[in-house]
Amino acid sequence: MLAKRIIPCLDIKNGQTVKGTNFVNLRSAGDPVELGKSYSEQGADELVYLDITASYEGRKTFTELVRRVAAEISIPFTVGGGINELSDVDRLLNAGADKVSVNSAALRHPDLVNEITSRFGSQVCVVAIDAKYTDEKGWRCYVKGGREETTWDLFEWAKEVCDRGAGEILFTSMNHDGVKEGFANDALCRLSDTLSIPVIASGGAGKMEHFRDTFIHGKSDAALAASVFHFGEISIPDLKHYLKGEGINVRL
Q1: Which of 80, 155, 199, 201 is the most exposed place for a label (fewest CB within 10 A)?
Q2: β-strand 125-134 against 168-173: which pairing, if any?
């Protein structure tokens, strides 16, 4: 069985790492290059960097940041935010990224997933899905950093991008984001059972047991978190030793 992955996520705004709750109320969490280097040294399996306000000027700044990160860390990292066409993917891969994450642009233009995978390979293409659950609509996908609802159902969209060649799904539950009460394991389990590609859990990590539960009950392949790592609430070495003790296959 493949080892389960622990992935710190760094949301970038104006060159700094930030973190919020339910996608709002952002506060600074430090220098993204130094944080990434620290996580790499602590034993993180991968990193995700998301440019959460990817304006045109921000893109150029972000590309330079990607170069600086690539020079300092020794683990794979994914970058996302403002990726709308193949030239964006090419630019970020050339700057040193291992994978790209697409979200809003893929929902607007699903063929982008096919284009990325046919040009660069499935392993490069992570489709990020931000979804919110309501009793009336079930799990509905959102775009523009969680600001705008779409007509897509989470499970239908995940199946669509899987069929189009995406390499992984990064599912963030907007209901759980920053709340620290656990991941959306029922939805994650359903995704894992119906898709043939890895599923990354995002949104809800507050304590070590939440990671254990998403690997066991959510059947997640990887777990992504931000604030618990950024603000020193959970250390990655401690987390991995805890998970190992719970019988979960992780790389120490």
Answers
A1: 155
A2: parallel
Residue 138 gets the label, from left (phi > 0), alpha (psi -120 to 50) or beta, of: left
Find the catalytic residue in 11, 88, 177, 213: 11
11 is catalytic: yes
Domain span at residue 129 reads 5-245
Examine residue 105 and state whether it is found in any structural domain, yes or no.
Answer: yes
Q: Give tens-digit pLDDT for 32-91.
A: 999 999 999 999 999 999 998 776 667 777 999 999 999 999 999 999 988 999 999 999
The contacts of residue 208 (CB under 8 Å, 6+ apart) are 234, 238, 239, 242, 243
Question: 45, 51, 88, 130: which one is catalytic?
Answer: 130
CATH number at 58 reads 3.20.20.70
Is 177 noted as a catalytic residue in this protein? no
